[in-house]
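ingest -> validate -> predict -> emit
validate: passed (alphabet ok, no gaps, 180 aa)
predict: started
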Amino acid sequence: MRVMVAFAKLDDAKKIKNVLNRSGFDDILACSSAYQVISAANDSDGGVVVCGYKLADMHYSELYGYLPRECSMLLVASPEKLQDCYSQDIVCLAMPIHAQELVSTVRMMTMDVARELKRRRKHQPKRRSPQEQKTLDAAKALLMERNQMTEAEAHKYIQKLSMDSGNDLIETAEMILALE
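emit:
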């Protein structure tokens, strides 16, 4: 899980990077511009952005709008600036921050992002190989010809048989073809 640390002063970003490194975080990028964060976020599978209120080229709220949904943001700023934070999706820490508070917050956020990514992947449809798709299409074609079904009806029929028998969809299609 990538952690991107962005502050207007690169030295501040490097200090936070060092704290996170010593606490076991590996993939950390220290930068001073929102452009660098956006580029890194788009190249990663997900992550956490730790940033200050204002970067060299953008305000934190603008940066948040450009982040992919696989990233979450931790805003580190003075208590007065944090009162202006408009989004409940942005986690906030008031300065001065303690190292342990920072580390535990970033750890919690990376676990949340990882859990969300896992949940999204779980709900994505499984990709079939060309051979599996060919088998499924052949079974649907057989049902369409033999039982005068539409393609949607044939697909639904194979799905129902698959669920009722507890077999994989492709296994069920192979059984239909074997009974031909």
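Residues 48 and 106 are 7 Å apart (CA to CA).
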